[in-house]
Each structure stands twice: as C-alpha cells, then as structure tokens.
C-alpha cells in the first residue's frame, strides 16, 4: 500500500459519500419539471469493477526495474485498479466512459515518488525510454488533461504526487509557505491552520485536488476576490524537467523578463512536474462572514456585483446566481422547522406585495473578513449598493449554509448519471460590458442545443470571481440524453458543451476561467489567444519537450503538431 | 518632421529643463558632506552635438526603399541626430558614453510607422533583410535594452512607436481602454482624464516613457499598491511578429494555458513589437490624499509598512525612506517662510525631547483614495499602526509636495555628471522576512565598493510597492569617480553597481522589480530564475525568433546562445 488516498474509480469523491435527495423534498418535483426525470424511479448504479476489461500493462522490464529501484517496490503499481483510477479525471465524458468500461488506453504503471530526487529520476527514466509521463494530483480534473491519448503506442507512466503532501516550511515573517505539490486542500489547510495560517484557496474541488493541480490548471477559489487566483498566490516554484530543475524563488513581484512562473502556471504537465511551491498564506482571519442577499433580477444582481467591484469595499466573495440557479438552490433545501419554516413564505409574501416577480429573483452571497469595525465598514458600503439595485439582505444563516455545503456539489453528477441524466459545467470570464450578452446568448445556445437534440434540458448560471474589468460566469447544464448508448450520449453531450463553449468565444469570453484547457477546450484555443499566440505557446512546449514525452495531447488543438 | 517628441540626445527629459540647486540652500553642504563635491565649483556641461563622430548609416538601398514605401519618406530618418537619439536609453552608462561621444554602433535608420499594418510591413522587411529591429518608445530605459550590440554587423533598424499615441477606445462599462503602445504617460492620461478616467500608472519615468515600454519591461508605478503593476493593468495585447500578429483579447482572468500575455510582458522587444494594449482604467477618484509620516527608525518604518500591507486598509501608496534618503529629502527643501519656517525646527525639537535620534528618522508617504468616509476609515487603521511603531503624522503638505515633484528626480543624474559625480539606481523586491538583511547588506556592499575604489560615496534607499509577501527596495547611489576617463569611470561604476546587484541575489531578492533585465542585469538572470528557468526562456525566444532579428543581446546573459 502506498498510503495515498484516491477518489472512487468511477466517480467523484470518496466511497460511502454520495448525493441523496431523500432529505430534500422539493428536489424531485423540481427535476421532474425541468428535465422530466423521476428521481424516485429505480436508477442504474455504476458497474462493478470486476466487470471492466482492463488492457494489460505494456510496461517493459527495464523501465519497471528502473522505477522500482528508484522509488521502491511498494510505490510502483501495475494492478488494474490503480491503473484505472489514474486513467481519467472527473469530467462528464470521463464519468460516462468509465461507467461504460471504455478503456482504450490505460497508464501502464503508476509511480509514487517520495521526494523530488525520485521525481527527477522517474522523469529522466521515462524520457530516456521515450515514454509518456502524466503527472497526477487529486485526479479531479474536468477538462480531459489526465487521460492518455487513445492511440498512444509508447509506454504511459502516471506519476502520482500523493506522497508529497507536506507543508515544509512557513515563513511567518513574510506570510509565505513552502508546500509540496501533492498536498490535497484539506491536507495543507490542516497543517497551516494548526499554525494559525491559511492559504484561503477554496475551489469547489478543494477536498480532492492538490496544490500542484491548482497551479498546473490555473485554479481559482471561492475567496479569490481577496486571496487571488492561484496565479497570484503562487510566488515560487520547483519544477522537474528532463535532466534539470527549474527553481523560482518566492518573490512578491519581479521584472526578470517573460515570466517563467506564468509559463508553468497552466502548463498541465507539459512543462514538467511541479514538486513544490511557495504560496502566500494569511493569518486565519479574526472574523469571517458570508451574508446572503436577494436581488429582484439577474441584471440587478450583476450590476450590484460590478458596482461592488468598483467601490471602496473589498469583500472576499462576490457571487450571484441567476433565477434558474436560485430556484435550484431553493429546491435543495431541507425541510425547516418552527420559525424558520414560516420565515421564507412570509418574506416571499412581502416581496410579492412589493411587486417582485419571485421567479426572477436571484440569490447572492457576499463574504467579509477582518476586524469587526472593518466588517461594519464594508457591509455598510455593500448594503447601500445592494439597496440601490433593489436587493434585500437575507442574512448570515443561508450564507453559513452555503459555506458548509459548497464542496458537496460535484457529487450530483454521479447521482444524475445513476438516474440517466448528463450534467456538467462550463465556466468562463469576460469584461463586465460583455456579461449580459454572454449570459443570454449562452443560455440560448444551450437551449437551442437541447432543441436540436430533442431533449428537455436545463441550464443555470452564477457570477463569481469579480475583477476590476470583469468576472467569471459559471454555467451548469443537465439533460436526459435520448439514448442509452454511452458513445451516443457523449455525442449528445458534445452538442451542448460545444454550443456553450462556442458561445463563450463568440461573446468575447475565454474558453475557461479556472478549469484549464486540457483536451476538452483545446479546440477553441486559437480563437481565444489567436493563432499567433498559439504558435508562441506551441514553440515553448516544443523547445522544452522536443520528444513529446510530457503529457502530450493536452493544451494544443489536435491539428497542431506539438 | 515626424511630429514625435524625443528626450535630449545627451540626457534625461526635454531641452530647457534641468535640475538646479539654486533654490535649495541646504543641498550644497549636504553633497559636500556626503561625497565631497562642491556644487558651486564650475561644472562640465555636455558636449556639443557637432563634436560627435557619428558612424555612417549602413542602410542598404533596397531596405531603404522598402521602408520609405511603407511609411512614407518623411517617416524614415537617417540623419545623425535622429540616429544618436535612438542609440541609448538613459542609464548611467548610457549617459557617460554619450557625453564621451562613444558611439560604436548606432542604428542605421529610424522608422516611424503610423499604424499596425505599417509595423507589420517594417518587421517583415527587416527580418527578410536579416536586419536587427529595436522597438523604441520614450527612450527612458535604464537597463541597456535599447542599444545595438557594439559588434552587430547587420543593418540595425530603430522602430519608433511615437506616432502610435492615441487612446483608441474606452469601454466605460468594463473600465478598460484600448491604447496605442507609443503613447507617453502624459499623452494617455490627458486623453483618459478628459473622459473622466485614469490608468493610475505613475512610474518615475512617467513623462518620458510609453505604454509599450512599460509592458515590455514590466514597469511599476508609484500607486501600484492600488492600481497594480503594469502586468496586472494590462489585460489585452496586440503584438506584431514576423508574418503574424498575436491578438490577446481583454480578459479579467483566464486559464488558457501558459500565459502568452505574461510572456510578452517583460519581453523587451525580443518577442515582437507591441502595438496596442487593453488596460484597466478607473474613474478619477473622488478624493486623493498623500499623507507624510515620520518614523523614529528604518526598522520601525519597514515594520509599519508590513503591518499596513497585512491590515484591513488598502492604501494606494506605501513608501518609506531610510535615514539617508530622508536627510537627502530635507536637504532638497526650498527655504520656507513665516510659520512654515518655524514648524520644522519646533517639531524636531519636540521629537528630540521625546528621545528621538533625528539622524535616524525616516520619512514616509501613504496615499489614500475614495469616498471621504473611506479615507477616514483607512487613515484610522493606518494611523493606529503608525502610532504603534512610534511614528508621527506630518500631514498633507509634505505629501502634496512629494506628489508634485516626483517626476523631477531623474534630472539629477545629469546635474551630477556636470559636476563630476556618477549617480544611479538599482531596485529589487524580496519577501518581508529578507528585507532588513537585504537592506543592511546592500548598503554595506555599496560602501565596501566605495572603499575598494577609494572614493567617497553615498547610498540611500526607500521601500515602495508593498505586496502581501514582500516589497520593493529602491537604492540610489552616487560617488565622484577617481578618474576623468569615461571608460574608467564606467569601470568604477560597475564595481558599485555589481556589488549592489550581487547583494540582491545573495539576499534572495530579484535582479529588478520594475526596470527590467536589459543587458545590465542579464548577468544575474540565471541566479534569479535558475539555469533551467533560463533555458525555458531562451527556448521561447529561439522558437519565436530563430534568426535573432528581434532586439538580440537583451534579456539573456552573454554566454547564452539566444
């Protein structure tokens, strides 16, 4: 045993935890109304592992011996379960494929180095053998960055960073921590919290993603408005390349030419293996609050988020859901008792009498941190803006509930697959001036795609991650495919997903704000950064990896040579 | 005439403006005490232009015809004055060389394209002729990025962006402006201010540097704590490469792989010609104040700046000078009258009675912007921190004075050269935990270098640009060389400059926070970003510019092939 924890081979998260609607009486009617699926009908659970046909490992004896010599016998795995766990990320296509037992190319071996020196030796051995090396962190990628190219003839090695999970050092005088790349969110936060510090990085995948994965995909967290995206948080890096190690010391800022740090960020394994990083850490804040607000319309909510971003206030979280996502959130509520049970209906009644169309109402969460007097100052500024845009404050209760439940959302996709529906996400970022059109056109594109497929689909959206010049829009979509055949389901999925991604490009938004490029979004890379920009990126990859040994197939579109 | 304004061929800024000590009675005694130079002795003015021996242009007829066809006769200059203006930046070595008439390699032609299409044609023509292309903005570079390699045998073309000086578009709904790369600071701020907007970027070079130059060197401005470094401000780009144009649309954030935007930032002409950028712009603030404070010691000032950066306050400017720079600032004061004349001595008297050692006192400026109530909130937070560290508030008066005079400083180097002293700057950034050692060791390194040279030198420093994990330290040094021979003066300059830069590296700081690499700092690049990191950068440059046509010689150390 390696001691490294993994997610389910067939789905999100850990065995024994799953999404259930048993305690959410409003959900079944909601789902029936929106996508015509009966949550109470018998579902199809994932297959048994033993039913999978796993292709044999093609690991040659020489490389096997070299790997075992390097990391030790117990840290080289060639059994089917380990190899299958390392075959896919957790994108919707990954989930459908693994449930279908679709395993055209599985890593031939999984290696668990225990330190950077072992990583170096593994990288050198794989490149010397002209193999393919795929770094693996928490396995939570949803852009197709982890899957070996189906036609890959060379030996494929999955390099699992799971043993490199320690906070090595905290520079308390600078607010910096040196952390190994394989540390999962809870691992590193527990170690930091024990010393009074936090990184403050909370992506939805937090429990099952690693520091190295965050850096390699340009992750962003719920609190990025305060703590920054991972690109801001990451100050220093160590990255293993064939025959050498890039060492970038932690610097608050520098003008030392084109940023190598910003080349490693988002490199998805194509520019080597990140082994550790220096990251900004902060004292656990004195006070922390997430307050819920309600806006009469999506336009009012967006306008308020924009005005907050321009204001003197600097909240940690700015998030607003569209009417569909708000309705979905309300359908997810557990039954409340006593006063709480009455508060909702009473409030809604009051709002209706004030002229609100409740079906258009939009739920918002704003986060605050700092001294009590600072929270007061910030909440006063935000409160005025909310009021100006016709919104009302719901209070701390719903905010705290959201904060507790935020990491549970990804489990829903497996639940939907059980009952025969496909659900996934696409997120982007664009200037404030483009957001309303981007939103309307993308929802329309999803609905047109559903019509084209002749299915009853649903799409919802929230805004999060506000910047001076724009914000992230995060779309979630679900529909019951009109076929049981997995390959055809995937085709139908792509009709919807492509419509959404194409809408991003057509509306001057990026292909992804924080999920990376992978193979899923590579098709639009040239539209995003221009063909000449793609040339520059391809030239960089080729210069570092002339043999295409480092996670080939990700980042660049298929027709590109590198 | 091209209509493009240039700085003096021999020094900083425009003809008719020069530094004078006539209205600063305390300066001459201060300079005498610190470096033993008599400001009232007759100086040596710069030489006359006609005394220069300018090598003839090597521009061939074919390329000349092609350039004239492209941009028009009047926008192709081959006269000596134009070519000399485009030979050097304004580093100390540049200034000594030009005064000495040292012109080993002068651009053969200066071209002023009027639009991006002309830029493309010029770039293609120069590369087709295997020439060298050096983009030129305001000519204020002080790291040696603008000077043709002395031994360059190929035709050298200086591409002056000065005609591309317009704000093309303001996206008011997003807070973004599209601005041509050749716009000088005042040009673009005037155009923005007229519409109620500001970019807020104020480097010391503001009046004589361009947007394209800021981007190409990773510039930072006085107000970067609020507005961000140019790397944060720059959201979209257009960059001309041979045969193509990189187009990066303005995005608040993106996870589209290794950041091409962050490769262009700091590229110093080696990755093509920046023609325009989308930048963050802000409404001209309601209120703007710079308040001066005084700390009893440097350590107290640094500690206060650090605590402010960790606090709930977010001022626009955080700056503190060491005791030497504080003394220099006081020596630069004009004689005051009436009450003001008495206020200083009275205050100093009070402080001495409180136990201050006034020779250790450190002057600080903190900037605030926003609504009146916000300024009050922020000043209260900062005020408490200042008090905690033993500091006192001096008020708005000195702050406003500093704000008015901040762009005059670079003129002093020419004034010092007139009287026979060399003065220059070196700046860096490092984590907060390293700053005190970095400071002490760098001052010691400068003093050791003076001792080695047997000269009486002076070094001073300020902290500016605070980040979560660290800050910029900006050193200014001056000494009278022990020789009149320019080449020997440059050698002596390098003894001091190298000692300072080496101290940066030895104390875990970067080679430059915002002046770029150029040729002057390239020697330490491998120490800064590691040899493997330098490999990655070199691979990128080679892949984009296999013929070494784009500003070769900058960024990489001399022993590197690319």
From TrEMBL, chains A, B:
Q: Source organism's superkingdom?
A: Bacteria
* Gene Ontology biological process: lipid biosynthetic process
Whether Metal-binding counts among this entry's keywords is no
Query: SUPFAM superfamilies per the record?
Result: FAD-binding/transporter-associated domain-like, FAD-linked oxidases, C-terminal domain
Residues annotated as binding substrate:
413
Say yes or no: keyword Oxidoreductase present: yes
Q: Which residues bind FAD?
A: 204-210, 217-220, 268-274
Q: Which PROSITE patterns does the annotation name?
A: FAD_PCMH (PS51387)
Give site residues, Important for enzyme activity: 319
Annotated Gene3D superfamilies:
3.30.300.330, 3.30.465.10, 3.30.70.3450, Uridine Diphospho-n-acetylenolpyruvylglucosamine Reductase, domain 2
Q: Name one GO molecular function term.
A: FAD binding
Ordered alphabetically, the record's keywords are: FAD, Flavoprotein, Oxidoreductase
Entry annotation: catalytic residues: 474 (proton donor/acceptor)
- Which stretches make up the FAD-binding PCMH-type domain? 103-284
Q: Which cofactor does it need?
A: FAD
Q: Indicate the family of this protein.
A: Belongs to the FAD-binding oxidoreductase/transferase type 4 family.
Q: Which PANTHER family match?
A: ALKYLDIHYDROXYACETONEPHOSPHATE SYNTHASE, PEROXISOMAL
Protein name from the UniProt record: FAD-binding oxidoreductase
Q: Which organism is it from?
A: Jiangella rhizosphaerae
